[in-house]
Amino acid sequence: LEEVHTPNLPGIDDVSAFLEINPDQMLKTLVCSSDDGWILAVVQGHHDLNLGKLRTAIGSAVWLADEKAARDAGFAVGFVSPAAAKKIKITRLVIDPDAAQGRPWATGADKADYHVRNFDWRREIGDMLDADTVLVTDIRNAQDGDPSPRDDGGTLRAERGIEVGHVFKLGTKYSEAMGFTVLDADQQRCPVIMGCYGIGAGRILAAAIETGHDDDGIIWPVGIAPYTVHLVTIKLDDEIAMALDPLLLALDAAGLDVLVDDRRERPGPKFKDADLIGCPIRLTIGAKSLAENAVEFKLRSAGRQKGELVPIDDVVERCLTAASGAQISPAGCQSSPT
User: Fold this and answer.
1) Which CATH superfamily is domain 2-136 in?
2) Counting runs of H as helices and runs of E as strands, what totals does the chain give?
3) 217-323, what's its fold?
4) Which of 78, 73, 86 is nearest to 38 (CA)?
5) Which of 37, 133, 148, 214 has its CA 20 to 30 A from that of 93?
């Protein structure tokens, strides 16, 4: 072993940079506690311990040790190596398979401000590796680039997600309190293992906006849009009103929810507001389109592309086709960096 003085280096990244090695060439030993005593959990330097997996491996409750208690027991917290198991009585030494490889490792030196190079499992731990107290099993978090657990040659990829619901395992806490039991395979009564879930309606809306928007505003999916059609009038007069009323009746009869913007406002602000609100379809009716017996049709997902003129007699069918999802997609949407 080569002992190296590593003062004022609180983390794996700092130590590995000082030693001029990669974090995956280091062992990280975490001191944990259980009802039965101390447990040492060892993972590679660039991996994080998964306490849930460790609990499953141990078969009982386990938690990260209190730092003061661990120091009082003799552990050099922050500089612990697997070899501490030879000096301090522990109940289990649990090693992640990636950390159990035979390469020379860098790790803590079991004294403050020191690490060692060339740690060798068999040389440093010896026959203890063959004891029942040593367990090699998966105890780390999965991370980007890991092999697929399906063993299909793929790799895991880490992506941002949005939480829109929860699933909770309640165990037998409430079933025992209520006396809710079933018969097991041996015809013995046992409490039901319960769970629950919840979907956040507000979270769904927020997630839809987060994943479906552009620089001009929201792009609502048809299924949860407040209105399917946003109908904008240009300089509303009697002629436009006469064409508007039967069009609205036809859209309503087809089951399409319509938001009408008939404000006495210039077209520019109306179009900006329509983009901001984000209804899937925008129809524009004005003197120019009526001169061709048509309505301007535009999908919100089309971004800043120009709309097209659709004959008034065909516009309801065109809206229904678009609302079915055949023409509405998140093209042009972008995800927020948050």
Assistant:
1) YbaK/aminoacyl-tRNA synthetase-associated domain (3.90.960.10)
2) 10, 19
3) Rossmann fold (3.40.50)
4) 73
5) 148
